[in-house]
Amino acid sequence: MTLALLDATVLIAAADSDDVDHEVGLEIVRGIDHGELPTGVVTNEALLETLNYVEERLSHERAVDLLDRFVRGAHFELPYNPKKNYGVGRSLFRDAGGLNFGDCMQTAYMRSRDIEYIYSFDDDFDALDGISRMNSAVNPYR
Q1: Which neighbouring-strand residues pair with 132?
Q2: pLDDT category, 129, cuts 50, 70, 90?
Q3: What pLDDT shows up at residue 3?
């Protein structure tokens, strides 16, 4: 199975029509939803950040609808980042200045599953070895 992580920056952009990256974010999410892009992995860190943003800035109903869409979507995985990844996440947080703790935990998850690709508008991921950031609806496996 081909996998790529979905960062909250893409999910928020897709949900918020006022976001500068809305069209691209929506294109990425739709491409995953329709099976044209790799299966989208949304860690608990990215899901929490996204739902909090949508609920606070848009509405509770939009946040619930978004959550339901991810749960029902055949091409989305919603894994819980296991405790064993916290050591790696903490180390990254200490050493990789510029990455917030959520991003470090997503990186730890990616490394634990050998996932190379992340859809993100956050260029802080560019500094990490073994991580390839994509900011458009491209399928790196084709």
Answers
A1: 117
A2: confident
A3: 96
Is residue 126 very low, low, confident or very high in pLDDT (cuts 50, 70, 90)? confident
Non-local (6+) Cβ contacts of 2 within 8 A are 38, 39, 139, 141
pTM for this entry: 0.93
- Given a contact cutoff of 8 angstroms between Cβ atoms, the answer to whether 13 and 19 are in contact is yes
- What residues does each domain of the chain span? 3-134
Query: In the CATH scheme, what is the code of domain 3-134?
Result: 3.40.50.1010
